[in-house]
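Inputs:
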Amino acid sequence: MIKLEFYAALKDHFPAWMEVDDTLKDVRALRKYLVDRDMSASVLLAQCRFAVDDTFVDEGHALRAGDTVLVIPPSSGG
Amino acid sequence: MIKLEFYAALKDHFPAWMEVDDTLKDVRALRKYLVDRDMSASVLLAQCRFAVDDTFVDEGHALRAGDTVLVIPPSSGG
Amino acid sequence: MEHLCTEHIDVGSLWQRSHHPEAGGLVLFSGEVRDNHQGKAVSHLYYEAAESMANNMIAALLEEATQRWGLHVAIAVHRLGKVAVMETAVVVITGAAHRKEAYAANQYIIDRIKHDVPIWKCEYFAGGGRIWGGHCSCKEERVDESVIF
Amino acid sequence: MEHLCTEHIDVGSLWQRSHHPEAGGLVLFSGEVRDNHQGKAVSHLYYEAAESMANNMIAALLEEATQRWGLHVAIAVHRLGKVAVMETAVVVITGAAHRKEAYAANQYIIDRIKHDVPIWKCEYFAGGGRIWGGHCSCKEERVDESVIF
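Outputs:
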């Protein structure tokens, strides 16, 4: 399984965390999976970055069983 | 008479204040008078600005009896 | 976590430890909660973060700025949870031999915290309703929906 | 005089009154005495001013910056007399709706105080000797002996 953590406005669409099976091979596939799951979040998901091991990863980053993936909306600290 | 006030490094050359007679018609004449009085201050005097009534004045500013003129070396506050 | 805090940020005590005999210029930035957002009355803000990632990124950012600008002082703390109007949401303190470096580093750090570090604000309005995110005042760096896909 | 002070500058108490419900960005600059000048150990500094002129110029400068950048907070205080290493010689606090204006105004005010306001520092060296003036760190604005005559 892969654990997903959602933040900020994403929590209006997804739970704070959930698990997905590890047939999603990379970040691109995960992003598509999430858009398919909640189309109303598609604009927000298009703006999100993803992080594994607390480090931003790109679309081609391969996902592995046991990963925790953070789904990161645009920052708005300060 | 015209009262002159000196600050900072100028006080190594002139007293904190002194009076001069009012035949000095403008700032240019005053600057020349001071250089003639202490040639060793000429480089510093060349960098100085003058103020009358707490306001900077230019070389052609006419001096009058009763004026207090501040002789202002380059600022170095902060 | 050193750079995140859920209580009131004690700016005075951070300032007390922000002095260094070689630092001639100290700059402190405090981001404080305004009572309005584009004319709408704000009741309070709520901040959340991807905490360990945000804390590590701020630490790395301070280290990067320290190297780049030769800082003697580099401190940043961001508040999480509910923050009232006029309270400090984030504070950045930088100190360098001369002021130019202290200002530049300070602005760099807060810009990166606002744009890159995974921290989010939610604005709660006095008349009800809330909005996540909102735009940073430096609009030229705003995320554009068109650029990612 | 409001903008000049011969005692320790109480930065904490100035900070306490530097908040405003419409000011989202507060910037504080503190110019502090370094323990060296171009490698020579500094014992302390001594500041003097053409006092009424300097106080009036700082007041005018704060008013000008307030208009230009829409500041909600604009404070500046310069210390006079003997100032020890790590003590604050000058403090400038600016607050605006957004940080960009607060930073810009703050830098403008301290640049003008350092370059235009009739305040002078005398550096006293640990090994004896003293020097009036000294150069500001922003060398491009340094007074050039050749330009006046």
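Remarks. Residues 139-149 of chain D have pLDDT under 50 and may be disordered. The domain at 4-143 of chain D is CATH 3.90.1170.40 (Aldehyde Oxidoreductase; domain 3).
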